[in-house]
Amino acid sequence: MENKPHKSENIHIILWLIKDMSWLMSWKLLGLAMVIPTIIVSIIIAKNSRNIQEDMWYNIAVCFWISANGTWMIGEFFFKDSWRMIALGFFSLGAITILYYHIVIKKYSKKSD
User: How far is CA 11 from CA 44, 71, 73, 102, in A?
Assistant: First the structure.
């Protein structure tokens, strides 16, 4: 059976592309308006993937990545690019999420098998 993306994943890609295109084109209001729905849909995707551990952890990392990306964009648009360290915090949380999955969760699940 073919693994088809869920409708929310397709919507998420569209939202993310509009947000990033708005950032590239300096369309501040559209970019700002796209941050929240993009993050919300990424959270929904992570929640809906909770039955498959690997997908869930990667989708949580994507939530942090989108948050970092949106924070960086807002900082550039409205705060003289002074929010990069906040964005770095979100990017770091995403990396920690992936490391946690691979070092702790996967290792623990192998021991219990």
Answer: 11, 21, 20, 28
Q: Which helix (H) or strand (E) holds 71?
A: helix 53-78
Scanning the structure block, which residue is given the tokens 């970019």?
Answer: 31
Structure tokens at 48: 């809906």
pLDDT tens, residue order, the chain (113 aa): 445 567 888 999 999 999 999 999 999 999 999 999 999 999 999 999 999 999 999 999 999 999 999 999 999 999 999 999 999 999 999 999 999 999 999 887 776 65
Rounded to whole angstroms, how far apart are CA atoms 102 and 109? 10
What are the CA-CA distances from residue 17 to residues 1, 10, 23, 47, 74 (Å)? 29, 11, 10, 22, 16
Following DSSP, what letter does each residue of 11-65 receive, concatenated? HHHHHHHHHHHHHHHT-HHHHHHHHHHHHHHHHHHHHHTTTSHHHHHHHHHHHHH
Pair of tokens at residue 7: 């409708």
